[in-house]
TrEMBL record:
Membrane topology: Multi-pass membrane protein
GO BP annotations listed: endoplasmic reticulum to Golgi vesicle-mediated transport; retrograde vesicle-mediated transport, Golgi to endoplasmic reticulum
Domain Endoplasmic reticulum vesicle transporter C-terminal: 13-102
Family: Belongs to the ERGIC family.
Origin species: Araneus ventricosus
Native organism taxonomy: Eukaryota, Metazoa, Ecdysozoa, Arthropoda, Chelicerata
Protein name: Endoplasmic reticulum-Golgi intermediate compartment protein 3
UniProt-annotated location(s): Golgi apparatus, cis-Golgi network membrane
InterPro entries for this protein: Erv, Erv_C
Pfam family, one: COPIIcoated_ERV
GO cellular component: COPII-coated ER to Golgi transport vesicle; endoplasmic reticulum membrane; Golgi membrane
Length: 102
């Protein structure tokens, strides 16, 4: 698995050029609710990166540098964990056994 946020090799390859690196970071707050009542608040991140070579003579292409743009999501994702009862398990077993013998 490749970590897209690690652009050190790209930076080393293009360090002598006038480059513009842009990182767009989207942050989504997330809550995990466990069946035992514990909750965990965390964030999910999505990173998109763009790079381009810019001209130092003309400013119409942008400025060389590293730019990080953050976007905070206005909503929260909630993951819930629920335990099924013993009667649900018993009903599933009866359905499987009934399906095998019919």
């Amino acid at each position: 698995m490749v970590d897209e946020s690690d652009s050190s090799s790209e930076f080393k390859k293009n360090y002598w050029r006038a480059m513009m690196f842009q990182y767009y970071v989207k942050i989504v707050p997330t809550m995990y609710a466990r069946a035992d009542g514990q909750t965990l608040y965390t964030n999910q991140f999505a990173v998109t990166r763009h790079q381009k070579q810019v001209s130092t003579l003309f400013g119409d292409q942008g400025l060389p540098g590293l730019f990080v743009i953050y976007e905070l999501a206005p909503l929260m994702i909630k993951y819930g964990e629920k335990q099924k009862s013993f009667f649900h398990f018993l009903t599933s077993v009866c359905a499987i056994v009934g399906g095998v013998f019919t």
